[in-house]
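Predict the 3D structure for this chain.
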Amino acid sequence: MEKISLEQELKGNSYPGRGIVIGKSGDGKYAVTAYFIMGRSENSRNRVFVEEGEGIRTQAFDPSKLSDPSLIIYAPVRVLGNKTIVTNGDQTDTVYELMDKQQTFEQALRTREFEPDAPNYTPRISGIMHVEDGNYNYAMSILKSGDKNPDSCSRYTFAYENPAAGEGRFIHTYMGDGNPLPSFEGEPKLIGIDGDIDEFTDKIWESLNEDNKVSLFVRYIEIATGKYETRIVNKNK
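Done. Predicted structure below.
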C-alpha cells in the first residue's frame, strides 16, 4: 500500500466526518493517536472535547443549543490499564466494559453495529492501542451497513503488530460530503507520522476544513514507560 500524506488527504476531503489515526512517531519512541470530529448541523458543531480521567468526552459548548445528545455526546477516549481505546461513539464504553471482563476488542464490538442515523447509517470506527513492557501494537475496526442496507452489518478488524516508526493508519467515517453521506471504504489508509506532538497536532488541525472542523485530540504515549502527553484543540472557545 502506498503511504500518503495525512495533511493532503484531509485537505482534499471537505467532510471526512470523524477520524482516527493510530501509529508510531518518526523517532520510534511514541505510540501516537489522534481523533477528530466535524459537523454540518448546529447540533453537531456545538461541541468541545474535555478531559475526563485519563480520557476525554464530548460536551455541549452551549447547553441551551443542544437539541439531541444521542450520537454526539460520548467518551471518545478511555484508558483500561495499558490499553487506550479510541472510538467515534459510545462503543468506547462497550469496549472498555467488556474488555475489563476479559473479552477481546473484536468480541466487544460484536455486540454493536453501525449508528441508527438513517439514511447515512454512519459507520462505527474504533481503535485500541496496547503499550506494555516496551512493546506496542494496535488494532482498528469499522462496523458499517451493507451498502446502506440497515438489515446487514459488515464487520472489519485490522491488527498491526510492531508498527514501523513514522507510519500510521487513518480511518474515518465518510468518503466525502453528500446526501446520504458515503461510508468509508477499504482498509485504513497508510499515512506518514512525523514531528513532535505539537507539530503533528498543528498539521492535522490546519488541514481540516475550516467550516466543518469541531475538535481534535492527540496523544503521544512513550512506549518505554507508558507516560503520555495530550493535546486538545476546540474550535469553540
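The first strand starts at residue 19 and ends at 24.
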